[in-house]
User: Fold this.
Amino acid sequence: MARPHLDPELQALLADLPLRSELDTEILAQLRLLPSTAIDALLEGRCVARREVTDPVPLSIFSPAGHPAGAPCVFWIHGGGMVMGDRFSQIGIALDWLDRFGAVVVSVEYRLAPEATGTALVEDCYRGLLWVAEHAAELGVDPDRIIVAGASAGGGLAAGLTLLARDRGGPSIAAQVLICPMLDHRNITTSSHQYSGDPGVWTREMNEFGWRSVIGNGEVSGYVSPAIADDLSGLPTTYIDAGTAEVFRDEDVTYATRIWATGGQAELHIWAGGFHGFDALYPKARISLAARRTRNDWLARILEDVE
Assistant:
């Protein structure tokens, strides 16, 4: 199939990245052995207090040193196709918001598929969000300025978590930031078929493996695959971005469109030539800088509006 060209700078950078077209249990086991994100290196030079919580789920809490009470909070959900990664994956995106906005960043460690299936992953995220809301005063967090955010699978879980919080009557979420989110288990869009067969950062075949791992033979919930949720009304203001050259492009556009159809507010950016996760992998590329700047400007406006 014809497909959008990659951004030239990103294409050059990808030349040094080992790519694959498929994912299976053997490859997954190897990928899980790779070192985690070097969180200590990311924190170096930042005036940040770090705290680890293990109950009810593992949480890493990063707070600007000496921050005043009433800070915004970013509840971060990592990516990895729902089958890999940990709470430090892509955390650099959220730590930028700590630097820029004085936000307290809380990153959740949810169980991974295939060891955990169905709604277990999003329920872990919900337990973490409940803990944050219940301990807002202790954390110095304004409970009316909690932002739920995530990338890739984390973006899909953020969307599912926001639906779950709406339907259970809380906690309150001021906004959701869905970065190239993994939203639709059906894998039937034009963009999913465009990025099939050839090696890539995340292909249709890899996506099938991730969804099969989390769903198995069970019933699919809209909290797990938010694209099939019947009702997208009553959601907080939403930011969605993705690239033109990725599997998730069309399902992300459709999700924004469905939010608009309910009268909800969503800002959508589809970056020309961006592959899946481009700004997490190559944050200094020109297109990545533009994507992050645009996302940060939106978040700045949102935080001002809810002060």
Notes: The first strand starts at residue 48 and ends at 53. The beta strands are 48-53, 59-64, 71-77, 104-108, 141-151, 175-179, 237-243, 266-271. The CA atoms of residues 111 and 120 lie 7 Å apart.
